[in-house]
Specification:
The structure is a single chain. The protein has helices spanning 39-44, 56-59, 62-69, 85-93, 104-114, 161-172, 181-187, 199-206, 216-223, 238-243, 245-264, 266-275, 282-292, 299-316, and strands spanning 29-31, 47-53, 76-82, 99-103, 122-129, 133-137, 153-154, 192-196, 211-215, 232-237, 294-297. By secondary structure, the chain is an alpha/beta fold. The longest helix has 20 residues, at 245-264. It starts with 28 loop residues before the first strand and ends in an 18-residue tail after the last helix.
């Protein structure tokens, strides 16, 4: 955990998201088909390797993972959940995974760092997570952004969407921002920290003295009404997409159905989420799902939502998106 004091201090979550990570690096959790397909099925199905993060991105993927374990699905999905984006990035760059769920700004950074004269090496296919961040307080003094003046804000990690989102919101509200967040909040009266869902729900359910103070999704809408808070996306290696367009289309079909399952049946999804080790109990997972803003947005709507968010980040700090805004070839189908 980092602690930087000043008018407002913060060290930010590297795993957004993600859009959410546990803060500790655990061994990857992998799902693969339990049943052996017939020779004909094997010839027809494409093996697709998928990397997701511990948090909302995998919460929307659990039905697809469960079906893959049972030998179902339109293709042969092999999904692995990782604790941090740092574990996923080299696998994407080295071609070890075909599809990855990553923080939205990291997708732009990857695009800028790997693009060549031949074109984009990675593309974004869908938005899968909107706002998941909440500012939590071990007390009852923070009602507005002005109440944060002079306080220390605790957050783990640095360099991903949450950092840039927090800094943007602080500046828009007149404040200049100069490791274990849950543990600090639980043990320190008056502490203020930022956590992503579902971990914010886990903490508030386990520690009644900690309460949500500010919801970043609501606060973003107040100061940037022409854009959406896009925290997580689905990216695909362009080489894989070019070689297996139908297999990728099948994945999107199954993934969209998996997202719908999570949102439509939180109780059943909660069981799978707990079994995957994302949160400790199914009941907590079920309660957290509505706040996780798990979604599936593709096509022109995806390009508009993500492009608007990246534009805000770029205006605040070009480094947040890798130095320049992605071109049209960043978006699948453009």
């Amino acid at each position: 955990m980092r602690r930087i004091t000043g008018v407002i201090a913060g060290a930010l979550t590297a795993a957004a998201l993600l859009v959410g990570c546990s803060g500790t690096t655990a061994a990857p959790t992998t799902t693969s088909p339990a049943a052996t397909p017939t020779a004909t099925a094997t010839a027809e199905r494409t093996t697709i390797t998928i990397a997701s993060l511990k948090g909302p991105t995998t919460m929307g993927l659990v039905k697809l993972m469960s079906d893959a374990t049972a030998g179902k699905g339109l293709q042969d999905y092999q999904a692995t959940m990782y604790a941090t984006p740092d574990e996923v990035v080299p696998k994407v760059v080295q071609g070890q995974v075909d599809i990855a769920m990553v923080p939205s700004n990291l997708a732009a950074v990857l695009y800028n760092k790997t693009r060549t004269d031949a074109g984009a090496a990675v593309q974004v296919a869908a938005v899968n997570t909107l706002g998941v961040l909440e500012l939590l307080e071990a007390g009852d003094t923070v009602k507005t952004w002005a109440d944060l003046k002079g306080k220390t804000i605790y957050i783990s990690g640095k360099g991903a969407s949450p950092e840039y989102t927090l800094n943007f919101l602080l500046r828009k509200n007149g404040l200049d921002p100069a490791t274990e967040v849950a543990a600090v909040l639980a043990a320190t009266p008056g502490a203020v920290g930022v956590l992503p869902q579902p971990f914010a729900t886990v903490l508030t359910m386990q520690t009644p003295s900690v309460r949500p103070a500010l919801d970043f999704t609501d606060e973003w809408t107040k100061v940037a009404p022409d854009s959406q808070l896009v925290m997580g996306v689905v990216i695909v290696r362009t080489a894989f997409l070019t070689e297996h367009p139908q297999a990728f289309a099948d994945f999107l079909t199954d993934y969209q159905a998996s997202v719908k399952f999570t949102n439509d049946d939180p109780a059943a999804a909660g069981e799978l989420i707990a079994a995957a080790g994302i949160v400790p109990k199914a009941a907590i997972a079920a309660k957290a799902i509505p706040a996780c803003n798990i979604t599936f947005i593709d096509g022109a709507e995806m390009k508009s939502a993500l492009g608007g968010y990246l534009s805000v980040l770029f205006a605040a700090d070009p480094a947040s998106v890798g130095g320049s805004l992605p071109g049209d070839d960043f978006y699948v189908g453009s």
